[in-house]
């Protein structure tokens, strides 16, 4: 009975968080002040037939796995095929072509789909595009941070919310801007994509590679800022892995620590281990909690009830998550599009 009571209370809390009484219009919260839901590996055809359907889903985060293919010098999108594409992205760059063209395309086509979809939905809620660089960048093959930025900028242009937008000409680092809560409101981010970069599983297991995506892109941001070119950067690197306290201090050189304001780790590790996650909301950092289903009491990783999702959202909002993710692609847009007040 105690568990059921707690569940009911959390569901009620979730409803209260998003309700607006009568005709009152609540002020739009900042991006850093809400908790939303994302879909793990949304590029997989088993989750959505087309990438545009993933964009339709209402989810606030969609994930792409990307390989830097040094043989063809192309960005491949696949879970485990570094030299091929295996995904739901189409060869389509016009709205009329979506939901009908050949799939299994490269990253450029995934971005083309996003640009076409954006024309149909110019006021969509902000969407974080989480890019796992499976084997890391390959600068020697012309597939490094500069080339990634160029591709994203070419395909999506002003629809990307960039690090320079957070700096706003007023702050000398992303850390300083985040601590000042310089994030825009969710309304101001309508029609925008926000790119998050994380190291990949192949990269992490490669004994010959100790210079991972997060550090490489952190160096990239630092150097662009020093050169007066920070406006070229298109993504936010994330500190990967749940930790207690500030994980930047033990992982990065002091010169790049201030360029990390995204953090990404396992929800159960954060919550069940009793970590003090208030650190993230106090500093207005973006905290992505993955595998949200696994927090005790565990729920389905694929198709929990709507009430279970609402309760999990409320619980992890209280634990200071910005976005919670799982494989909940079967849920409706009204569920995946839920927005709660953070912390």
Automatic annotation (TrEMBL):
This protein's UniProt keywords: Signal
CDD domains: PI-PLCc_SaPLC1_like (cd08589)
GO molecular-function term, one example from the UniProt record: phosphoric diester hydrolase activity
Source organism, top-level taxon: Bacteria
Signal sequence segment: 1-26
GO terms, biological process: lipid metabolic process
InterPro entries per UniProt: PI-PLC-C1, PLC-like_Pdiesterase_TIM-brl
Keyword Signal carried by entry: yes
Protein name (record): Calcium-dependent phosphoinositide phospholipase C
Species for this entry: Streptomyces diastatochromogenes
């Amino acid at each position: 009975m105690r568990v059921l009571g707690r569940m009911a209370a959390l569901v009620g809390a979730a409803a209260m968080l998003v309700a607006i009484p009568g005709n009152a219009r609540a002020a739009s919260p900042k991006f850093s002040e809400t908790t939303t839901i994302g879909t793990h590996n949304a590029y997989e055809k088993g989750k959505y037939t087309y990438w545009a359907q993933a964009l339709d889903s209402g989810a606030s985060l969609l994930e792409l796995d990307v390989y830097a293919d040094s043989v063809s010098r192309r960005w491949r999108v696949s879970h485990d095929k570094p030299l091929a594409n295996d995904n739901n992205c189409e060869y389509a760059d016009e709205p009329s072509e979506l939901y009908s063209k050949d799939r299994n395309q490269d990253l450029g086509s995934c971005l083309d789909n996003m640009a076409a979809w954006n024309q149909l939905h110019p006021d969509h809620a902000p969407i974080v595009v989480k890019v796992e660089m499976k084997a890391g960048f390959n600068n020697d093959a012309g597939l490094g941070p500069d080339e990634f930025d160029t591709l994203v900028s070419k395909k999506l242009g002003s629809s990307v919310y960039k690090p320079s937008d957070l700096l706003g000409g007023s702050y000398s680092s992303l850390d300083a801007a985040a601590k000042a809560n310089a994030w825009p409101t969710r309304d101001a981010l309508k029609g925008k994509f926000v790119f998050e970069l994380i190291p990949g599983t192949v990269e992490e297991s490669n004994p010959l590679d100790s210079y991972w995506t997060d550090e490489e892109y952190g160096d990239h941001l630092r150097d662009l800022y020093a050169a007066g070119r920070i406006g070229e950067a298109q993504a936010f690197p994330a500190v990967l892995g749940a930790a207690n306290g500030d994980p930047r201090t033990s992982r990065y050189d002091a010169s790049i620590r201030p360029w990390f304001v995204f953090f990404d780790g396992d929800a159960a590790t954060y919550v069940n281990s009793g970590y003090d996650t208030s650190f993230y909301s106090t500093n207005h950092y973006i905290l992505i909690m993955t595998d949200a289903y696994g927090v005790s009491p565990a729920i389905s990783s694929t198709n929990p009830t709507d009430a279970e999702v609402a309760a999990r959202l409320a619980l992890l909002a209280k634990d200071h998550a910005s976005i919670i993710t799982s494989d909940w692609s079967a849920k409706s847009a009204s569920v995946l599009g839920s927005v709660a007040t953070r912390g």
